[in-house]
Structure to design on (340 residues):
């Protein structure tokens, strides 16, 4: 690709958990977004941090190379390297950070550190979607490790209104799936079975936390006791009622998530709502939020490819930081905990 004076090419790297991803962005347009998944964790029923770090080391070079080739962009055209600094698994983050720093130094281009959670939100500004949210807007960010309610005032100005005080919504899905005997990752499977079930079949408790805080530990415990009690009475209970169980559990979590979002929208006087994070791929959550358009809300939901961890979202965050010349020093280190 021929580069002109106003072109900005960002090479982005994401390695916060168990997906190694590389992307190339031309301004706000994604030219490539390559993701290598790690299958090894399925046999353990969850991500094993040490194994994740090892696989990142194996995957990162071929993934970045594939991203550059798919984008038809040469390293000499790259203006900056963006990488995930945190939050995430420290071993995984170290692989991406070390690779990004070495490459930026060798190319003589700026290094841009990105907050993973901010990047999920900024995926809404990737070119080619159906318009961008106007500022301010509220974003419900839901993933396996985080559940946050964020007021977004600008591309680089975020206000955390509330978050989970214990488990994340994605973890609540995966733990319930494990109780049901479903393989990891279980969240998408619960969504799949729920489509065939009756969401009113069973009732699970919805937490009532102060402010805009969330809690999912209670519904996880209630779900465990419910399954244990029912299987004592009928060992075949789960297999006979799997669709109804999944549909009922999914409805409870969705109602919990949107209850706080609705309250925040009313308090803040904001009519623009957005969804982000891996759990934003959940079909009921997407439909339920979209249905709020009937109440006068403007709703923005990212394409499926930008819901789960990917480097394109790191790249768009890097693009906005590049415009502000917000660059990182080469001695910067990743951090497992990284607040907004």
């Amino acid at each position: 690709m021929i580069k002109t004076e106003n072109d900005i090419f960002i090479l982005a790297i994401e390695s916060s958990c168990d997906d190694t991803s590389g992307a190339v962005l031309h301004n706000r347009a994604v030219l490539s977004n390559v993701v290598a998944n790690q299958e090894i964790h399925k046999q353990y029923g969850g991500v094993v941090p040490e194994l994740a770090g090892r696989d990142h080391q194996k995957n990162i070079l071929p993934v970045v190379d594939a991203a550059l080739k798919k984008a038809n962009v040469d390293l000499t055209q790259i203006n900056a390297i963006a990488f995930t600094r945190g939050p995430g698994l420290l071993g995984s983050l170290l692989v991406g950070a070390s690779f990004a720093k070495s490459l930026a130094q060798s190319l003589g281009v700026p290094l841009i550190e990105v907050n993973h959670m901010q990047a999920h939100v900024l995926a809404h500004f990737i070119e080619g979607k159906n318009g961008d949210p106007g500022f301010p807007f509220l974003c419900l960010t839901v993933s396996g490790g985080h559940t946050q309610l964020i007021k977004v005032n600008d591309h680089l100005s975020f206000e955390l209104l509330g978050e989970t005080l214990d488990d994340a919504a994605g973890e609540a899905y995966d733990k319930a799936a494990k109780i049901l005997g479903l393989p990891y990752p279980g969240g998408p499977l619960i969504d799949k079975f729920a489509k065939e079930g009756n969401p009113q079949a069973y009732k699970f408790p919805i937490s009532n936390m102060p402010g805009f805080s969330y809690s999912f530990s209670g519904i996880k415990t209630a779900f465990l006791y419910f399954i244990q009690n029912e299987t004592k009475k009928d060992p075949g209970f789960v297999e006979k009622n799997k669709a109804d169980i999944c549909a009922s559990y999914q409805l409870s979590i969705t109602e919990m998530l949107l209850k706080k979002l609705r309250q925040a929208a009313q308090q803040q006087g904001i009519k623009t709502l957005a969804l982000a994070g891996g759990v934003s791929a959940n079909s009921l959550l997407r439909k339920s939020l979209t249905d709020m358009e009937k109440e006068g809300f403007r709703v923005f939901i990212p394409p499926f490819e930008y819901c789960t961890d990917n480097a394109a979202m790191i790249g768009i965050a890097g693009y906005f930081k590049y415009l502000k010349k917000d660059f990182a020093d080469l001695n910067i280190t990743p951090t497992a905990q990284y607040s907004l």
Q: What stands out?
A: DSSP finds nine helices and ten strands in the chain.
